[in-house]
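pinning this so it doesn't scroll away 📌
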Amino acid sequence: MRIGYFGGTVNDGTIDDVVAEATQVEADGFASYWAPNIFGHDALTALAIVGREVPRIELGTSVVPTYPRHPMAIAQQCHTVNAAAGGRLTLGIGLSHKIVIEDMMGMSYAKPIRHIRDYMNILGPLSRNEPVSYAGEEYTTHGAIQAPGMQPFGTVIAALGPQMLKAAAELADGTLTWCTGPMTLADHIVPSLNTAAEAADRPTPRVIAALPVCVTDDFEGAKGRAAKVFEIYGSLPSYRAMLDREGAAGPEDIAITGTADEVVERIGQLGEIGVTDFAAVEFPGNESEADATRQAIKQLL
């Protein structure tokens, strides 16, 4: 299982902060650096800059919402970012949430599965440097992207429900999950994805699982902090469904907390259930916890 890092400075820091964070993550030996695309800096643009400054690790988005971006336009952007990064980009995309797409952006969220399948039938070939000719219900595109030195880039889809997991297995390289606990990964995410990939004669998919992590001797304090920091995710329907499946009241119940040995053991167990990549979301309460958390995760590198 590869160990990656879920960055936060793309939303709450400057571009210099993003570069500094990614530089430290690479220096610490992590395999990948993932930048969320929420309401801060644009993740892909930030990763283009990171790609010129940080030379070795995989760079990924976690995740870019599809609805506001035409698949051919995002493919063109990704090829540019991938060139800046020397071929190390993995594009993580997702539907976002109805409250964001409809209430904030005024776009229809009526047919999300049809949307992602049309989207990937265009984005998929373009990501592999192939021309596309596709007519769907949501998108129709006939064209190609041609730029000197283009390299293919990977794609993963944020998928939790059965139909989204099937689409991720058939049309992308796998999935990237958040707020999804180990039992749900073991009995739902991994088997659903692998079964769909096998039926479609596709390679074994990536399962990139992101979870909150904190090494601490104040378990109740860390649990309370997680409940506050990650509160919004417990109310979003797609994450709520996964938390209910896990029997978790909220994200605080799936956060990986405890002693260094306990944290290392719990992360390691994810690889045993078929998680191919773990992406750590550190949430320390102080500098001591921050250092202890990073040192524990580094034992797995």
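📌 and the second one:
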Amino acid sequence: MKQGELRATGSLAAVFAMRLLGLFMIYPVFTGYAHHLHGATPLLIGLALGAYGLTQGLLQIPFGLLSDRIGRKPMISIGLVFFGIGSIVAALSTSIGGVILGRVLQGTGAVGSVVLAFVADLTREEVRTKAMAIVGITIGMSFVAAIVIGPLVASVIGVPGIFWLTGVLALVGIAITLFIVPNPEHIIRHRDAEAVPALFGRVLRNGELLRLNFAIFALHIILTASFLAVPALLTRSLHLTQHSDGIVYLPVLFVSVALMVPAIIVAEKGGRMKEMFIGAIALLTVSLLALALAGGIGAVAVAALVGFFTAFNIMEAMLPSLVTKIAPADAKGTATGIYSTLQFLGIFIGGAGGGWAFSLAGATGVFSFTLIVAGLWLAIAVTMRPPGRYSSYLVRLATFDRQGISALEAKLKAVPGVIEAFIAPDEDVAYLKIDRARFDANAIAGIVGG
């Protein structure tokens, strides 16, 4: 990657991090705090935790489409302003209703799709996959860091202080966007990074993509609902003081990431994606069952959390890769946009459903709810077809006969290792899905050059 591309990718990844740190720091500390808010009930606490997912999910794709019209920087700035306002509303609220309103407003800062489109604007086709990987790694690291430091920060400035800090981070994100992120030469719609409304029906009719959409939906239902019960379980079983959970989450997440890495290598390099996918769901299910039965046994709770986060991290790493392998060559951005929408709606359903289950049967109800979701997910997953070992490949078309697009696509499809080929004349790009083991890049260069 060129220096300018590294700067653009790093600064946009930092914008993502500013937003996600504030959102995820709340997870391990919110439930204990929310019980003291005026009007709080288990159901409303769950709604407050997951509320931002509703607006985030509904607005993710529209924000991206609007950014094509009015610009990336304005949309990111507008989104972060709303995100900051929501953080302030939540910080000032003494009632659960006020916090729910704040969380809903936080979700209106749905800038994720805009950031990814901006990365595409500022990077060349041949390095774009690497740039997206950097952003993805940043998202994962932000989640891990937030879960670990959330209790520590809350012990110093309280949960309202985290909301205030989140507002400050929104301002930092705006400053990075306006003063550090480079301006693109031009803005176009990138089919590998943005949703195209005309392709929605095609993507939604793809049964394998629907399985993956349900997977990310179920995963975030389980994650969000579990945080309504896990913090109290840890405090009780390990005799922790308030906001000292970080001493548990740090080693648990460290071990889970260490276990996740070889699992992903086996899945990707060894061609065992389906087996690892189903194995991770099974591990998650067993971990939830262990959490439900842990009672006051701290060692069981910690071991179950290691399994839980190992499975979670495996899924977070595998699912985007699977979407890329399965999505049509010209619809990767559309598939990813729908996938992200389901992820955030899963957060909302996890909060609402988990809160409802807690109101019925306490922590036992929460874990029963998550086990039902995990069981349904496992039943759906076993019917998936083993994914091909495919990846995306973009080819810049400097010059080509716009009247002979079909003929050029046919030539590209005939190259060894090319599974699909689609030419987007408005982008001067050919989108390919390839089998790297058989792919002949020189043949492609010869066709494009000729």
